[in-house]
Amino acid sequence: MSTIHEVAKAAGVSISTVSYALSGKRPVSEKTRLRIEDAVTALGYQPEAGARMLAGRRTHIFALTEPLRADTHAPTHMAFVLATAVAARRRGYDILLLTDEQASEGMNRVAASKLVDAILVLDVAPDDERVAIARSMRTPTVFIGVPDDHSDLTCVDLDFDAVGRLAVDRLADAGHSRIVLLGQTEVSYRRSNFPRRLLHGVQQRATERGADVDWVTTGEIATDVAVVRSAVESALDQGHRAFIVHAVDDTHEALLSVLAERGLRIGVDVSVISAAASFDTAALAVQIDTIPLVPQRSCEFAVDLAVRQLDGERLPPEIHLLPPEYLSAGSVAPPRD
Amino acid sequence: MSTIHEVAKAAGVSISTVSYALSGKRPVSEKTRLRIEDAVTALGYQPEAGARMLAGRRTHIFALTEPLRADTHAPTHMAFVLATAVAARRRGYDILLLTDEQASEGMNRVAASKLVDAILVLDVAPDDERVAIARSMRTPTVFIGVPDDHSDLTCVDLDFDAVGRLAVDRLADAGHSRIVLLGQTEVSYRRSNFPRRLLHGVQQRATERGADVDWVTTGEIATDVAVVRSAVESALDQGHRAFIVHAVDDTHEALLSVLAERGLRIGVDVSVISAAASFDTAALAVQIDTIPLVPQRSCEFAVDLAVRQLDGERLPPEIHLLPPEYLSAGSVAPPRD
DNA sequence: TTGAAAGCGATACCAT
DNA sequence: ATGGTATCGCTTTCAA
């Protein structure tokens, strides 16, 4: 391709003027700027990545570490990756993928070689090995998720604890004192950081409101529809009529189908709240109240924090918990008896 | 971090010797090489990415374009992304993610700025817009998948046509003359490149073998278990006893469950072959013959082609179709009547 | 087998 | 408002 020299020659200016005109870091007169822009388009000029990295102090690349475990829920995970990539591009950054089991090796490598300006951490485990690496590094790192030991870390996430409390409050407000938490798979409560936070919020607030909570998981390692159905059946048999669902779409569908089979009407006979769903609950057969998990929100916030740190803002390491939002759809009603 | 100068000083040699010792592009005596390696580890030296890009002619980065459509099957897609990333890392390359609708813009940008050495194309559509970009570019590009118009392109993929033929042959060999192809979702036959190739192989070989094929899809845009079940029910009602399944795991499970409900035994009353499944069919309740789609194979091959092109091999643009492999599990039997 | 030095193509400081 | 140029850290000729 063409270099900044050719652009300068074509526009009849010096290379520094071209550089400043393009970066905007120094005022350039209207007419010279226009001539430069013309030359740029005429030549199809694109600054060379390597040269910019070397000369400037920015690579315009973020690393995204994602340890893709076997039990990762692919659709949700993809939504986060996509949201991160889109948010980053909007700020002028590309995403470099760091998969591998050896997440630490990758982080160290890209940081030491100055390949990336910052690192975004996805799919955070409670005892994540990447926490130690992040602490030992100068490269700004933002966790999307909250590990157990998060001192000195910058984290962004939906406030799952608050989601749990909010869901309980709505059901308790409606008069329910017995609640079922239809949760995630068993393994996710050990390997992931957020299911337990929602569980904690639910249990704590339930205690405060004098309500009982029955917590059920929905499969060993992957969601098992049969397990979900029998859990729902037995909850209904025990007279339960209030559900908080923190689970994938299949689980929601299984719940709805069991309720339909029994002729139980949501929002009349039974109350249901979908908590922290990352899929579109509006696409379900029945509309239900939802406290959504919006990957875009977390990812944009995370990218923003990274960019601001690079721009020199002194942001203290901190946990940023995004407040939940309650979307009503009439699926919560007072108990009927 | 430390620079090549510091390593050179620590080892008592010149920087060029360090460079050559590390790249192996020039013979270096045993003892100096050892001293250099010691210095490298002692200082924790990592060559700076930007400097290498600028000076050398390699960035050691591949772009991976993936236009993440709404109808993309997330688990399969993730398997391909992961396989590509792993294969690339093994060859010393990182993966830069190019999502976006604007796939073309991204490809042009990373190519023009010399950010990447090659581009890998995933999730190929029959009339993919990235085909034109690839043709207009000097940057080596490898498609994982085969677009309709693929002249002058380098493509790698499982030979889906041959998969279809192989499946038909096995059923025909067993004596079946009526075959059901339980296929993908409707939209995938328009938006993806491979389902139609398998369909073509099945239909063509069926004609050659004098067999009839009933092709059914499994939902509009996403797999719909109800649709699958009723399709299977009606096929069974019509006396069909031979199935080729080219579909996601949910579809397999639905098929097995209908068969079980009817008391039909696989490998005895009914013959089933799973064609081009990218999940582990061994995890199903019943073992069935499988012609697997192994993402690792395609992705490694693609990475290899890219690397070899960069290493100066003159590889003519060509379609590389990987031959299918048949894994028997006793699920094919002669018709019973 | 090794060293010296000329780039690579930007950024940003120092002048004017 | 603009230009000249040192500089970033490496790769790779050219010499010895």
Core attributes:
homodimer; 337 residues; alpha/beta; 5-stranded parallel sheet; 13 helices; DNA-binding
Q: How much helicity do the residues of chain A have?
A: 40-55%
> Strand order within the widest sheet of chain A?
2-1-3-4-5-11
Oligomer designation:
homodimer
Number of strands of chain A: 11
Radius of gyration of chain A: 25 Å
Q: N-to-C terminal Cα separation of chain A, in Å?
A: 76 Å
Strand percentage of chain A lies at: 5-15%
Structural class of chain A: alpha/beta
Low-confidence stretches of chain A: none
Overall form of chain A? elongated
Largest sheet of chain A: 6 strands, parallel
Strand/helix succession of chain A: HHHHEHEHEHEEHEHHEHEHEEHE
Kindly report the greatest chain-chain contact and the residue count on each side: A-B, 38 and 38 residues
Number of helices of chain A: 13
What's a quick, concise take on this entry?
The structure is a homodimer of 337-residue chains. Chain A has 337 residues and is of the alpha/beta class. Chain A is built from 13 helices and eleven strands.
Explain this structure:
2 copies of one chain form a homodimer. Chain A contains 13 helices and 11 strands. Chain A has 337 residues and is an alpha/beta fold. In chain A, the strands form 2 sheets. In chain A, strands 2-1-3-4-5-11 form a 6-stranded parallel beta sheet. In chain A, strands 7-6-8-9-10 form a 5-stranded parallel beta sheet, with helices on both faces. In chain A, strand 3, helix 7 and strand 4 (141-144) form a beta-alpha-beta unit. Chain A is elongated. The termini of chain A are far apart. The model of chain A has no long low-confidence stretch (mean pLDDT 95). The A-B interface holds A 1, 44, 46-54, 59, 61, 64, 68, 72, 74-75, 77-78, 81-82, 85-86, 89, 94-100, 109-110, 112-115 and B 1, 44, 46-54, 59, 61, 64, 68, 72, 74-75, 77-78, 81-82, 85-86, 89, 94-100, 109-110, 112-115. Chain A binds a DNA duplex (16 and 16 nucleotides) through helix 2 and helix 4.
